[in-house]
Write a structure and sequence with these properties.
It is built from 5 helices and 9 strands. Helix content is 29%, strand content 26%. It is an alpha+beta fold. The protein has helices spanning 3-18, 80-93, 117-125, 184-193, 203-219, and strands at 34-43, 46-55, 61-70, 101-105, 129-133, 140-141, 151-156, 159-165, 174-178. The chain has a 9-stranded mixed β-sheet with strand order 3-2-1-4-5-9-8-7-6, with helices on both faces. The model is unreliable at 223-227 (pLDDT under 50). A hairpin with a 2-residue loop joins strand 7 (151-156) and strand 8 (159-165). The protein has one domain: archaeoglobus fulgidus dsm 4304 fold (2-Layer Sandwich), CATH 3.30.2170.10.
Length: 227
């Protein structure tokens, strides 16, 4: 697909899928017992996707899966889902234990069309999702969080679209936003509950990031790549 001519079609897909997001289906935190983190590492045109399921609130490992497949879309800001979601879908669907909620390395509601990678993934899985990113895609932060665990709202057009959470790395907050089937308050609570020990990322996402990097190092170039 020629990038500029294809963007209107991608926007229509996002707008159509966004209609499936319904507040009445919001996750209740007392029903959460398992959380998955998902991430993709890249080498040229191959993506190494990993999903790791951990117990909540214990943060104990339960299950993992990974897959290597060819990537068909370039990176286009605002359309990251079209690059990553196919591999992430395969990784999550390969799990033996389906999670109650998924933490994705990408934005959810904190997106120009309020439909980032995390929301896109959640709609297609029909599993609640939380968006977690290191950089803003849209909106502003009036001040950086001063301490680990302190928060500042992300504002766009006078609307709170996410929360910046202070981390162990000063000046680099996590941008947390609601994905599919999760409100912002619950998303922030789950991220805070699973982050600690001096790490920046919540543990399910940190484990998925590590697994995807190991997979890239071990398997790029072998015959496990899917078309």
């Amino acid at each position: 697909m020629e990038i500029t001519s294809g963007i209107p079609k991608l926007i229509r897909v996002q707008e159509r899928l966004r209609e499936r997001c319904r507040p009445e289906k919001y996750l209740r935190i007392e029903t959460v017992h398992t959380i998955a983190g998902v991430d993709v590492s890249y080498d040229a045109d191959k993506g190494c996707a990993a999903a790791v399921v951990m117990s909540y609130p214990e943060n104990s490992f339960i299950d993992s899966s990974c897959i290597v497949r060819r990537v068909n879309y370039p990176y286009i800001p605002g359309f990251f889902a079209f690059r990553e979601v196919p591999a992430l879908l395969s990784a999550v669907r390969s799990l033996r234990v389906m999670p109650d909620v998924v933490m994705a390395n990408g934005h959810g509601y904190a997106h120009p069309r309020r439909f980032g990678l995390a929301t896109h993934l959640g709609v297609l899985l029909d599993i609640p999702t939380i968006g977690i990113a290191r950089r803003l895609l849209t909106g502003t932060i009036s001040r950086l969080p001063k301490h680990v665990g302190s928060t500042t709202p992300v504002i766009d057009d006078d609307e709170i679209i996410g929360i910046a959470i202070g981390t162990a790395h000063k000046g680099r907050p996590l941008i947390v936003s609601a994905g599919y089937g999760v409100d912002l308050r619950t998303a922030v609570r789950l991220v805070m509950d699973t982050t600690g020990n001096g790490y920046t990322l919540p543990e399910p996402l940190r484990q998925a990031d590590n697994l995807s990097r190991k997979l890239r190092a071990r398997h790029i170039g072998d015959n496990t790549t899917a078309g």
